[in-house]
């Protein structure tokens, strides 16, 4: 008993299955009761019609031949000894039975149940139709209710067996369903516990049927893959931060030691100035991290209609002198009148990062191109160069935080430029796509105005 209660309490599947079975049993009970009552009433009504027809026939005999013919008709019917034959009683003016074998007190006119003396069973109940014939005569035609009771008993037995079958099948089905459900969920729970214990590479079992459990397992696996990717990114970001901070902090420590041990004020001031520069570099790193996190977090930012054409021309004109001074050339092909809902400062920073990235990673005599066009479904803002480009295998990798293709990390920067650009693109309902310019690289910001929400 205790085991059953514990299983009931611990198994939601069993409770749901039994509740469903109870609802089915209740439905059978309601249906059986309604059917039983309908059939009972119909059968009683059929008997009443039969008795009324028999009483009408005898009444007609009385009207045509008087009392002798009525007595003869009743005696003839009783002499047939038919199975389930009607019972007859004719009462005189004093309520005395003057014809018929049914022994019963004189009933009132109409239809209803009466009590009579059965020759075999004794006191019994019959269904009767009683009619007044006039001149103090009253005719009762009845049948033993045993017929009705037998049919009622048959119906009750049939519905009882049906209810028992439903209960047994429901209980068996509930146990089977709960067992199957518990096994499926148990495998998912076991996998989840193993993953929580440290087996982060584990995944939920997905069956071949593609049912709801397989869909759930596939969704959980997708979530676990995303979590594993985030953990790996966190590990990579932590290592990158440690790597990028180690050099400036080491230099900072050496300079502070030099300042402490400096023999004159000028040397100490030089060391302190260098140390402040290293601190500024560290602060710039954290500011860049916070900026990327702010853009990716979805925090509400001021938005409005941004004239991308004017913004692109403005940035192209502002960068042109520095690009020319570096031995490179800059051209721009900007379609006029292109607007986008968003934040002008973020879009300007994204385009600036792309331009500076092209300047940083292309040799002298390279050609840079800023392009803006409005297609039928998208707005494309891109920066193209004819430098060495990025290998196809590395294009997704460079979008991650602190990812730098320079293994020595000798060039300035933190590896957050393209990460920020990608975050800005997603914040504006678009994406950053890196592609081969043959030669060089084309970095395209593709925006889909139809997919933008009011929050951008």
Structure description:
- This protein has 456 residues and is an alpha+beta fold.
- It has 3 domains: 2-154, 2-Layer Sandwich (Beta-Lactamase), CATH 3.30.450.20; 212-294, Helix Hairpins, CATH 1.10.287; 300-451, Heat Shock Protein 90 (2-Layer Sandwich).
- Helices cover 56% and strands 18% of the residues.
- The chain is built from 8 helices and 12 strands.
- The protein has helices at residues 2-10, 12-79, 146-196, 212-261, 265-297, 308-325, 344-360, 417-427, and strands at residues 87-91, 97-99, 110-118, 122-134, 137-144, 304-307, 329-334, 339-342, 367-374, 379-385, 430-436, 441-447.
- It has a 5-stranded antiparallel beta sheet. Strands 7-9-10-12-11 form a 5-stranded mixed beta sheet, covered by helices on one side.
- Strand 3 and strand 4 (122-134) form a beta hairpin.
- Helix 4 (212-261) runs antiparallel to helix 5 (265-297), helix 5 packs parallel to helix 8 (417-427) and helix 7 (344-360) packs antiparallel against helix 8 (417-427).
- It is rod-shaped, with a radius of gyration of 49 Å.
- The chain starts with a helix and ends in a 9-residue tail after the last strand.
- The model is unreliable at 1-5 (pLDDT under 50).
């Amino acid at each position: 008993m205790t085991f059953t209660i514990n299983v009931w309490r611990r198994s939601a599947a069993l409770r749901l299955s039994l509740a469903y079975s109870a609802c089915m049993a209740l439905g059978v009970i309601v249906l059986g009761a309604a059917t039983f009552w309908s059939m009972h009433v119909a059968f009683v009504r059929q008997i009443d019609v039969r008795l009324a027809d028999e009483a009408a026939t005898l009444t007609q005999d009385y009207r045509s031949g008087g009392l002798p013919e009525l007595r003869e008709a009743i005696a003839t019917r009783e002499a047939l000894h038919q199975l389930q034959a009607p019972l007859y009683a004719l009462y005189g003016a004093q309520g005395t039975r003057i014809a018929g074998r049914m022994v019963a007190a004189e009933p009132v006119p109409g239809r209803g149940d009466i009590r009579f003396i059965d020759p075999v069973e004794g006191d019994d109940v019959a269904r009767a139709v009683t009619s007044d014939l006039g001149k103090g005569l009253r005719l009762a035609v009845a049948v033993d209710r045993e017929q009705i009771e037998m049919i009622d008993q048959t119906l009750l037995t049939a519905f009882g067996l049906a209810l028992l079958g439903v209960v047994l099948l429901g209980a068996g089905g509930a146990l089977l369903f709960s067992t199957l459900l518990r096994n499926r969920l148990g495998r998912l729970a076991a996998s989840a516990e193993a993953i929580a214990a440290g087996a982060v590479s584990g995944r939920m079992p997905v069956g071949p049927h593609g049912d709801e459990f397989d869909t759930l397992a596939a969704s959980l696996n997708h979530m676990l893959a995303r979590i594993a990717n985030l953990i790996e990114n966190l590990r990579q970001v932590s290592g990158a931060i440690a790597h990028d901070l180690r050099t400036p902090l080491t230099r900072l420590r050496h300079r502070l030691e030099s300042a402490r041990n400096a023999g004159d004020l000028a040397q100490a001031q030089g060391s302190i100035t260098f140390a402040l520069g290293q601190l500024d570099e560290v602060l710039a790193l954290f500011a860049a991290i916070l900026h990327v996190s702010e853009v990716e977090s979805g925090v509400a930012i001021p938005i409005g209609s941004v004239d991308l054409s004017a913004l692109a021309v403005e940035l192209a004109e502002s960068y042109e002198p520095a690009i020319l001074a570096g031995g490179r050339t800059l051209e721009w092909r900007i379609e006029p009148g292109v607007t986008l809902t968003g934040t002008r400062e973020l879009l300007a920073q994204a385009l600036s990062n792309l331009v500076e990235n092209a300047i940083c990673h292309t040799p002298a005599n390279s050609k840079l191109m800023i392009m803006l066009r409005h297609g039928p479904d998208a707005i494309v803002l891109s920066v193209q160069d004819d430098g060495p480009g990025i290998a196809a295998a590395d294009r997704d990798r460079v979008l991650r935080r602190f990812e730098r293709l320079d293994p020595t990390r000798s060039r300035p920067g933190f590896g957050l430029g393209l990460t920020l650009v990608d975050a800005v693109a997603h914040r504006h309902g678009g994406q950053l796509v890196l592609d081969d310019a043959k030669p060089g690289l084309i970095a395209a910001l593709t925006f889909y105005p139809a997919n933008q929400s009011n929050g951008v």
